[in-house]
Amino acid sequence: MTTTFEVNELTPGFGAEILGIEPGAPLEDETRRRLRGLFDERSILVFRDFPIDRPFQAYLALLVHGEDDLTDEAVEAAASKQGRFYISNRLDGAAAPFGRLMFHSDMMWSDSPFTVLSLWAEDVEPPVAPTAFASTANAWRTLPDDLRARVEARSAVQVTGPEGFDDRRKGDQDGDLVQPQRDHILSVTTPVAKTHPRTDATLLYVSQGMTKEIAGLPIDESESLLDDLFAHMYSADNTWQHEWRPGDLVMWDNLAIQHARPQVTVEGPVRTLRKIGWPVPALAQDTKVLTYQKLD
After folding, report:
1. What CA–CA distances, in Å, run from 75 to 56, 59, 62, 79, 188?
2. With 70 as the cut, is the pLDDT of residue 188 above it?
């Protein structure tokens, strides 16, 4: 396939729109090399009006992750492992069918979260809710020196969602946050300054949606420090919003990028996004989501 694709920046600090690639595997070596490099450098790749099936979506996820085995068999296995992954307010059994999601990285509470995530707009209608993104890598690069000194040796406790921190839920005046109810609750403690396992970039690894506290600090001091970090992380200079159109593909580095969305309702505009992540952690398959409910 052609290597003469164009690249447009989404923001100065992160993100790239890819123009000119025709979907279909296999892509030639130079195209694969450029896409992998752009993914590691820019953390989000956006393809507009990109008609693809689930296997090709899986192929791209394996490709940017750096997998060498891109045979039909490997791609089909990756796609079939995630054959029911959807974010939708219409499909039965889909994830996050309603409500608002705060900024987070998927499975941030796990020792082995996804590193690549992608969403393809299978069925969307205006005015569909957008997806917002924030860069943990750019946030660390631009973190003020005084704030960096306060956190670079600290750790944070990550939990499965906002049911884990009552104080922060008080800001949910409309009760529109949602939380998956799992068969068991897990958490993990991670460095605030986390090293990316593939790129070696330093990430500001805290989030509104999954960081319970800064370990070892009194709760008031922890919340104050997190408020300062969130103000920096989610500032206009470090966020970008994708407005969905049918056939859009958005791929991102789940460690270097967080995502969020405003309120979605079951009765609202159709919003069905096909999801592929890689590599698939065992917990993503074994930890059952029982239901979704609003937080009171």
Report:
1. 8, 6, 8, 6, 31
2. yes
pLDDT tens figures, 249-271: 999 999 999 999 999 999 999 99
Spatial CB neighbours of 166, under 8 Å, sequence gap ≥ 6: none
CATH T-level topology, domain 6-294:
Double-stranded beta-helix (3.60.130)
Q: What is the pLDDT of residues 40-71, one digit of tens each?
A: 999 999 999 999 999 999 999 999 999 999 99
Angstrom distance (rounded) from CA 208 to CA 103:
5
Q: What is the pTM of this model?
A: 0.93
When computed from its CA atoms, the radius of gyration of the chain, rounded to whole angstroms, is 19
Longest dimension (CA), the chain: 56
How many Å apart are CA 6 and CA 36, to the nearest integer?
A: 15
What residue spans define the domains of the chain? Answer: 6-294
Contact status, residue 243 vs residue 130, Cβ threshold 8 Å:
yes
Residues recorded for the chain: 296
